[in-house]
Structure formats: C-alpha cells, structure tokens
Specification:
This protein is of the alpha/beta class. The chain contains ten helices and 14 strands. The protein is globular and about 75 Å long.
Amino acid sequence: MSYQEPLPEEVALRPSRRAISTDPAISVRGLTKTFGSFTAVDGIDLDVPRGQIFGFLGPNGSGKTTTIRMLTGTLRPRAGEARVLGEDVVRHPDRVQRRIGYMSQKFALFEDMTVDENLTFYAGVYDLDRERFAAQRDYVLRMADLVGREDELTRNLSVGWRQRLALGAATIHEPELLFLDEPTSGVDPVARRQFWDLLYDLASRGVTLFVTTHYMDEATHCNRLAFIYRGRIIADGSPAEIRSQHMDQRIFDISAADAGAVLQWLDTAPGVDEAYASGASLHAVVPADSPLTESALRDQLTAAGHPDTVVTGVDPTIEDVFVNLVSRQR
C-alpha cells in the first residue's frame, strides 16, 4: 500500500461530515517557554492550516514536545499567544481539550488491559454515550485491523499493533485536531508506512494533524513543515518551498566500500563545505558556483586511494536542507 493510495474499503475510516473552516487550526505568535535559565521554546510563530498534515521536525531536545504541551493546554507558556481551533489555549484550555486528540511518544495504553478495555476507558474519558461508542469502537477495530482480537491483552500486541490501537484511542471522540508526538519512534519501516496511510485518510476526512518527528524522510509526507532547532523555528513552508528557498548549494551522492574512510577524507577535502552520511551513502555539499564536477571529485577520491567510489549529482532532500540550516545556526 503506497502512502498516496486510499485505504482499502474494508479498513477505511468513515467519511467526514465536518466542514473545514478557513481559519488556521493553530495560530501561534511569540510562544516562549523557559525552565529556569534554559529556554526550551524561544518566541516561535506558527500557522497550521486546517485539514492538512503539518510536520514539526527537529532533533531530540529541540522543543517539539514542549510546544505540543503548550498547544494542548497542559503547560503554560511564559510569553506569547496561542489559538487552537479559534480558542485561546491559555485562557480556555478546557474548550480546546474537548476538541483535540493527543498521541504521545510512549503509547498511553494500559498494557494489563485488553484492547476492548482500553477503548472503553478512553470512551469514558471523552464521555461518549453508548450509541456513539459502539460506532466508534467498530471504526477503531477496523482501522487498526484488530477485529477478532478485542479480548487480547495490549501487552501481547506488537509495537505496530499498539501504535494503531493508540491512534484509535486518541481519535475515538472524533477530534478536529490531532497531535502526534513522535508516533513512529521505534516502529519498523513497514508499520511506519501503514501508519502514515492511516494519517492520510484522517486528513482526507478534514482532521488536522500536527506531527512531530525526527525522521526527515517523513517530512515528504506532510503538506507543510516547520523545522525547530534549539527552541527556534529555522524554516517553514511546504517541502518544495523549503527545498527551493533554503538550499543554495549542490549535493553529490557518494557510494563507497569504505564509507568511513571516504567521509574522513571529505571532511578536509578542498571545495567541500560539508559531508555526512545519508542512508547507505554519503552526501558532499559544495557551493552552487563551485567548478567541482562529479568526475573531478571521483578523480580526487581515486587519487586519495578510493578508486571504487561512485559520485552522482542529486537534488537536495529535506535532510540535506535541515543539515545545511543547522550548520548555519551553529
């Protein structure tokens, strides 16, 4: 199943009956949070359109979770304003919390309870009546592909199944806005792919998704992005806008048998601004106006004792842009 394809009919979520407002789902101005002398979030501005998947990217410790806690009304900011679904989240957190869902980094499930008992618990938290719970329970079980496993203890489910169940629990009250804080951390690639299929389907029904992640490849699945680093927003826009606006250098993709030795050589190579691992290969960054070509770099590597390298010019990825932006910040 591809990321762009709809879910099969037997597990697809029910069509939305929600009209999408033209106002932003989230509007933030100057949002700041400090812990003692440490500034976790430093005066950020954000606008998140409704009905889209908004990716909030950054390394661990950059301020992603702190931002979510302020936007969900569980942590009071030191300064700034935040409106969520049109409500001032500082003044009226209770109004916001009834209309949002939240899936944390660690699945908020009771492992000593069954699948059904977990769903019943969360239905009670959101005060669902019997009829609505019955309908939502059916939807969650089909969405999570857990039909027939209702009486299984949650601890016996694989990480991927628990992830789906946690998503179902977070959406059992049909929230307008769903916060997902690194929901795919520690999940295998197949489960991650299936999970993103579910997120696409939720967005197609008009649900706004605010997803934090440190997996740069997940950025391409979002409608809009913001990069946060050391508490500050260093880029925002669509994936295409970010790539075009923030990358004024060229990228060479390098495959080599001894990647470690090649990377060490690239770190001091003349004309190479930066080099780093990217998946199974290496990326070397050179100035846009550099005369260095693929063949010239390959010849230099051969002369340095690395004749088995393959050098190819590539378009910058979101990861390339982020590494470039972080390097400038440092």
